[in-house]
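Protocol step 4 of 6: structure prediction from sequence.
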Amino acid sequence: MKRLACMFVVSVAVIGTACSKSTSSGITVPVKASDDACTPATTQLGSGKTTFKVTNIGSKVTELYVYGRGDKVLGEVENIGAQTTRPLSVDLKAGAYELACKPGQTGSGIRTKITVSDAPPGGGAKY
């Protein structure tokens, strides 16, 4: 009976963990995208899961790309209408990256360099 009770407790714990959303893993970085700027709240980040919360304050539909070495696309979110906010989550390792907001969804975009260190991503801090 004791064993059955222990298995029940472990099962409930595993199911609860699998269904819960952890707010302590990763960080959220607001990004303001306009018709002529791409402005993250910070350009210095820790490695790990990063969610860019993109708010389009411009008048044109935009998109956000995260570029790694050699213009490798690591993540993108498209069709962000004026006065709309959309998330983009990527797992970043230490290194240099660029964010690119693309007003009108054309061209190479307005680029902003970001640096990721090997440190963990701020213990779930939100910028």
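Step 5 (inspection) to follow. The beta strands are 27-33, 38-40, 44-46, 48-56, 62-67, 73-80, 85-92, 95-101, 110-117.
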